[in-house]
Amino acid sequence: MQIVPEITRRSIENLVGNDKREDGRALDEYRDISIETNVISKAEGSARVKIGGTQVIVGIKPQLGSPFPDTPDLGVLMTNCEMLPMADPTFEPGPPSEDSIELARVVDRGIRESELVELDKLCVEEGKHVWMLFIDLHIIDNCGNLFDACELAVMAALKTTKLPVATIVDEEVVLSEDETFDLPINNELALCTFVKIGDKIVIDPTLSEESVASARLNVGVTKDGHICSMQKGGKEPLTKDDILFAVNLAVKKTKELIEHL
Amino acid sequence: MSDIIRDDGRKFDELRPIKIEAGVLERADGSAYLEVGGNKILVAVYGPRESYIRRLLEPNTGVIRCRYNMAPFSVDDRKRPGPDRRSSEISKITADALRPALMLENYPRSMIDIYIEVIEAEGGTRCAGITAASVALVDAGIPMKDIVVGCAAGKVYDEIVLDLSEKEDKEGQADVPIAMMPRTGEITLLQSDGDLTEEEFAKAIDLAMEGCRKVNEIQKEALMKKYSIE
Amino acid sequence: MIHVENKDLVIPGQILADDEYYSGRGTFKENGKVCSSLLGRVSLRNKKIRVIPLKSKYVPKKGDVVIGKIKDVRFSMWDVDINSPYSGILPAFEVFGREKKELNKVYDVGDVLFLRVVDVDEIKKAKLGLKGRGMGKFKGGIIVDIAPTKVPRLIGKKGSMINMIKDKTKCKIVVGQNGLVWVKGNEDMEQLTREIIHLIEAEAHTSGLTNKIKNKLYLAIDGELPPEEVEETEEEFVLEKPKLQNFKEELEQEEKEAEEKAAAEEAEEAEESEEAEEAEEEKEKKEKPDIGEVIEEFKRKNKSKDGSLSYGDNSNNSFILNNK
Question: Are residues C173 and C216 in the same domain?
Fold first, then answer.
């Protein structure tokens, strides 16, 4: 665990208190964002996203599998996240930590609840064969705000995912060698992450801002302005006003984020 | 023999296109990115740093620990995340391949961590990992006797060829990955699987060493490019 | 035979010279060749080759001044993170002698202190103390971290760089040899200083840096470039100009300036890790008495420059010049 020097905590709190930040941004301003898609030719969908120094790679691999009994005609989404030890001196090798599972689940929730992937079109044979999409997130450089980077990466990768056309011949699934179809996507979404420092709400926190923040809030908003997922994190509480302020800002900022896709 | 052309159009002693970049990550003490053929490898180095794993430390020198890991999306069929027997072995031999070059006497009881991530795999990832790891170690400012470099030769359709692609590795009869320190020509990694006559093996190792020297030039260029004054 | 020139960028394993050259820090000798063991720049003086690393972790040395962070409070000592593979301890008796006090009431986890390395044991653990001007806990300000190898550049000859920043930003600045820098002043000036320090770190190897930083400072603070920039730098360089070159007085002014600049750059380079150099010189002298004369002269020549070092033994306070 990294101990934050008391004077660093103090100086960041003072800066934010005066509506300033270490890197000169406004409190509601993102760092530079860049998105590249189709970065891995062996994956059916992939993207690399940078927000400032933060860098994540996502790869999407489809597999044929059995549907869940309660949704026999729907495809399946699985999101997994590896906070690689290469990304941060405090990340340890080994099975996913609580933080990494939370990150994967929050990212997954946005995609799932916005229903932007048309899962019914991923059914090959009802009750027997459906497409399962494995969304694997690789965190390679952690400079803060992994949540938003991951959600953008997944969104960008989904939009470029192509699946092989599957047909049933003599009760067997046959995959076309050259024919593919675009993963059916009917919406777009972004996640906006806020932290509370002192009594101010700050968007897209850097690592040092995260380290001194008292609380965190992730807000997932679709292109049409609907809120589809939220998560509060951190040790301290938030007020209702904090939350409403963040949600309002998230709705505005989402449009900006989606433009990068 | 020299005029055979391989499936991907290469000559017997030709490397796949290769690209190396040093210092690509913010947080790591040193890092490198390498592409060779369809391989994409990212390496980060942390250290020398304090380690709480006491039993790994040595009183008179620094130690290295290596983790080779394949991304689930790096191969055709999704790989389950986490280490398996193959990646554990590669982690070990990679550390063994790099260790002879390191000069860590000034860092007793410290640890250097090397994290090799295979983002995309297309044959020869262990050699590519070693090559990239060396660049990342240099980038981290670790003292070394030489820059270790890896390359493989093998036997495909009865011919000894350099730097096997994934397809050649699958269809071929033998694969001989090596790593060496180019200045002295000392070999720090050697594996061989498949069927070779003594003569073929000698030919393969010569070819692999020649390949290593070529790759070494690319390593040097990458470092010079990153750090020379514009 | 030598294969490189002064200030060349070299990489580990690169052959630098043949047998008649001496292997200094950052190099090793193998089969009669001097080779580099680091990514760094060549520093060539007489027949001795060193490589000054671009990056390197801080390893504590007795007498160093460092900035450390309290990471734990124990029975009779503090554990201190000194930005190094090796941690430091600050024994309670270094702070209040035999008096009994509750340690965490004095310094608590997260406090940042200016400390001296009192001793380094065989496993490189650093024993720290607070004897010296300005030592103790920092109140307020910010911490900036840079590569420890860039510290001499940040300080500059005789503190020229750091003093210029202090004067212009009106910030107090304390530099630890472990690469941590404490800055305190006006909030905006603190941030500007952080930016400037990182710029120096990034461009440490370029020439004319002092001027560049000066321009940037003036532009940021006054909105205009500084007056008589050439003059000031010249004065600074003249001080470093070796006496031996006086016979060239007759030369054209332009040519002279160029030379002074080159000499000054050399001196800048020399400044880096001078201390270690001297220790090594001492060692080498014992080992190779036959070259003693060369080294004596070498040392004599360097003596004049030693006075300009920012952290010689007698200049602890040069780190906190702005304590007016």
Answer: yes
Instruction: Note the pTM of the prediction, 2 decimals.
Output: 0.87
Phi, psi of A56 (to 5 degrees): -130, 150
Q: In this predicted structure, what is the pLDDT of residue A152?
A: 98
Q: Work out whether strand C22-23 and strand A54-65 pair parallel, antiparallel, or are unpaired.
A: unpaired
In this complex, the chains that touch B, judged by 3 or more CB pairs closer than 8 A, are A, C
C275 in any annotated domain = no
Q: Is residue C115 located within the same domain as residue C152? A: no
Query: Is the domain of C184 the same as that of C225?
Result: yes
- Domain boundary residue, one of C121, C137, C153: C137
Q: Which whole number is the average pLDDT over C293-312?
A: 38
C300 to chain A, any CB pair closer than 8 A? The answer is no
Does C287 score more than 70 pLDDT?
no
Q: Per-residue pLDDT tens for C162-195?
A: 999 999 999 999 999 999 999 999 999 999 999 9
Question: Which of A247-261, B137-151, C201-215 is least confident?
Answer: C201-215
C149 and C239 inside one domain: yes
Q: Please check whether residues C18 and C94 belong to one and the same domain.
A: no
- A100, A141 in Cβ contact below 8 A? no
The span from the CA of C107 to the CA of C136, in Å, is 9
Domain residues for the domain of C96 are: 65-137
Q: What is the ipTM of this complex?
A: 0.94
Band of pLDDT at residue B104, cut at 50, 70 and 90: very high
Q: Rounded to an integer, what distance in angstroms lies between the CA atom of residue C292 and that of residue C289?
A: 5
Q: Give yes or no: residues C219 and C147 share one domain.
A: yes
Nearest CA among A142, A123, A120, A139 for reference residue A131: A123
How many CB pairs below 8 A link A and B? 88
Specify if C256 maps to a domain.
Answer: no
User: How far is it, in rounded angstroms, from Cα A134 to Cα A46?
Assistant: 11
Cα separation values, A241 from A187, A199, A247, C59, C250, Å: 29, 11, 10, 49, 77
Residue with tokens 């998105």: A35
Q: Give chain C positions within 8 Å (CB) of B145.
A: 12-13, 28, 30, 35, 37
